[in-house]
Amino acid sequence: MLRAASIIAALMLTSSCMLDSGSGNGTAKIGETLKQEEQAKEQRSPGDDQLVIGLSIDTLKEERWVKDRDLFKDAVERLGAKIDVQAANGDDAKQIAQAENMISNGVDVLVVVPHNAEACAAIVAKAHQAGIKVISYDRLILNSDVDLYISFDNEKVGELQAQAIVKQVPKGNYVLIEGADTDNNAHMFKQGQMNIIKQLVDKGDIKIVYDQFTKEWIPANAMANMEVALKANQGHVDAVIAANDGTAGGVIGALTDHQLAGKIPVSGMDAELAAAQRVVEGMQTMTVYKPIPKLAEAAAELAVKMARGEEVSTDKKVFNKKIDVPAILLEPIAVDKSNIDATIIADGFHKKTDIYRNVK
């Protein structure tokens, strides 16, 4: 079982990469920034000194993000702070407006799960004008001065996906069904996948016969892409690397229509219940388990520390096209039939009875 206390202690080990306590603005802007921050905080209820953490989340239409919200909220409240959660459900303008509202209401720290990695740079700029620090949660906000990035090692996710599929099919026609082009994580997953398969492509062992991003990560779009891949190759597809469990579900839907489900290896990510069921049923080869309780609890601890004005240290940095962002990257875990009981079930992420519901 995950132990929040030990996780947080490990993450807080001292290292050389320290977050600056200021926003990086010049001296001339300090007075303006402090004034904006005080005006924002005055909008709270009189006498209310409790810290408030804002969570701006891309969507709550996926099982994964509902879990993140609930775990993060519980962790923040256990630490004695309040939380304001706003979900944009894939609408960039709405996410920016919601974040601006939280900034105006005087949150102490803003945690952002960006829908569009580039567009959310506007949120960081607006928050810094008000003297509010921003944590990029799971997905990196690009071209911004974001204060901290906490996620999993997303290149490693892609490597785990590719390794599992290559183990099943070392030679053959490969289809790549990637995530949303607007999500930096999707590009990191693909980079990890290519780290594994490029040498095999160069040797001629693997041929990538179809490679497409999936608009908005929507399973129906992934299914449509897979239909195109099958048609373009007259059904001669040997393996599919799908970026997450939603896209894997779409892929498997298309394979089912062609009587190929369970015959062609398919990867995934997020350890969603439906995917875990498909794994034990033999329809999906693997999923990548990203222990969300570990991520949410660590992010809550860091957000509250930053809200208190305490220094936070990290041991990594990730370039976001503008700066090297201090980063904490947790380890993902490849899960298949052989270790699903010892990982997803042992951690209480899903119940065994639910995962094996359809297995006779």
* Low-confidence spans: 1-37, 39-47
Q: How are strands sequenced across the largest beta sheet?
A: 3-2-4-5-6-13-12
Total E-strand runs: 14
Mean pLDDT: 89
**Total of helices:** 13
Percentage beta strand: 15-25%
Rg from C-alpha positions?
Answer: 21 Å
Structural class: alpha/beta
Largest sheet: 7 strands, mixed
Level of helix content?
A: 40-55%
Pattern of helices and strands: HEHEHEHEHEEHEHEHEHHEHEEEEHH
Choose one word for the global shape.
globular
N- and C-termini, Cα separation: 28 Å
Which features characterize this protein?
360 residues; alpha/beta; seven-stranded mixed sheet; 14 strands; disordered N terminus
Can you walk through the features of this model?
The strands form four sheets. This protein has a seven-stranded mixed sheet, sandwiched between helices. Helix 3 packs across helix 11 (292-307) and helix 6 runs parallel beside helix 7 (184-203). 44% of the residues lie in helices and 18% in strands. The chain is α/β, with parallel strands linked by helices and 360 residues long.
Task: Give the SSE map.
Blueprint: H1 4-11, E1 17-18, H2 27-41, E2 52-57, H3 63-78, E3 82-87, H4 92-104, E4 109-113, H5 121-129, E5 133-137, E6 148-152, H6 154-168, E7 172-177, H7 184-203, E8 206-212, H8 219-232, E9 239-242, H9 245-257, H10 273-281, E10 287-289, H11 292-307, E11 313-314, E12 316-319, E13 324-330, E14 333-335, H12 341-345, H13 352-355
Parallel strand pairs: 2-3, 2-4, 4-5, 5-6, 6-13, 7-8, 7-9
Antiparallel strand pairs: 1-11, 10-14, 12-13
